[in-house]
Amino acid sequence: MNKIKTAVLGLGRLGYWHAVNVSKIRGAELSIVCDMNEETAAKLTQELEVPSYTTNPDDVFQNDDIRAVIISSPTSTHYELLKKAAESGKAVFVEKPLTIDLDEAYSIQKLMKEKNTLCQVGFMRRFDPAYDAAKKRIEAGDIGQPIYYRGISRDAHAPHEAFIEHSGGIFVDVSIHDFDIARYLMNAEVSSVAAHGRILKHSFMEKYGDIDQSLAYLEFDSGAAGDVESSRNAYYGYDIRAEVIGTEGSIFIGDLRHRNIHILTKSGKTHDLLPDFPVRFVDAYTIELEDFFRIVQLNETPRVTVHDGVKALEIALAARQSFQTGQKINMAK
Ligand SMILES: NC(=O)c1ccc[n+]([C@@H]2O[C@H](COP(=O)([O-])OP(=O)(O)OC[C@H]3O[C@@H](n4cnc5c(N)ncnc54)[C@H](O)[C@@H]3O)[C@@H](O)[C@H]2O)c1
């Protein structure tokens, strides 16, 4: 079977790892990488022995040999790149969030339907072995009917300022992972959101209308409820946990521990903590891309669709609106 010639666009904190993973996947061939920063592109090209690099995304879209593109550039650039990908007939893997605003998301959804574009959105928690096991246990009925979702997503520190500027803010950038996985695990749609937040530490965020700590209370159309805490202030490490409470039990997902060791000294027992997302989700980032190339090869529907990307963005933007207005926002039916 022919390897799928692939381009990775955006080689920053996450795009670097996507490029590494593509270069290891048997059915894929990393043919070209693209970054606006030439030094970044050239360095990675050398490290992974990629045949070529460019600083102009059009070089990728005009190249008919490229069948698949991985978009991991800043969120504010997704719309233009997605449009070009759909118009040039490429299969697409796009990082979350799908786009930075809903008009863009709806227009991409329409275009991709017209062009029959295969597009997977990077909600990698669905591929993480722990979240995946939880989903299977919920579906097997082990905790009865899910009635409450609790999500905690705390970054060890704030991303660089340029990232914040183009990220859409904490609800669109961070909480969106929980909004997606909550829909998935609860098997229900969010019907309303009430959100709060403030800056606790990173005063530079005020310039962008952003905050570093937030809480969103969710109601689901199934009658269930939930809450999602997001933070950029977990100085101790990368802290991603969730709980689904059901009518007959509860499932806890995630742990703070990194390696499975305990260190015993006179001052007590310790273990190391997860430092960041590339470590916590190392398996998920690999599995989601393996699945992407499998479905491109078979021309199947991805496990995380553009519709999922749109739904999660709707919730995130409702949360941002609620935070800004102090009102509970009912989701459109
Ligand atoms: N799924 C996850 O866990 C996860 C984690 C981190 C980031 N992300 C998402 O990945 C995307 C990138 O985030 P990041 O943290 O890697 O950002 P980053 O700022 O570290 O890197 C972005 C890179 O894209 C390059 N770039 C800018 N405009 C470009 C363009 N038009 N074409 C090609 N390259 C361009 C920049 O030079 C930079 O190297 C964002 O959408 C973010 O939400 C997802």
From TrEMBL:
Transmembrane segments: none
Family: Belongs to the Gfo/Idh/MocA family.
InterPro entries reported for this sequence: Gfo/Idh/MocA-like_OxRdtase_C (IPR004104), Gfo/Idh/MocA-like_OxRdtase_N (IPR000683), NAD(P)-bd_dom_sf (IPR036291)
Domain spans labelled Gfo/Idh/MocA-like oxidoreductase N-terminal: 4-123
Keyword terms: Oxidoreductase
Name the UniProt record assigns to this protein: Oxidoreductase
Molecular function as annotated in GO: nucleotide binding; oxidoreductase activity
Pfam families documented for this protein: GFO_IDH_MocA, GFO_IDH_MocA_C
SUPFAM superfamilies on file: Glyceraldehyde-3-phosphate dehydrogenase-like, C-terminal domain (SSF55347), NAD(P)-binding Rossmann-fold domains (SSF51735)
Residues of the Gfo/Idh/MocA-like oxidoreductase C-terminal domain: 135-330
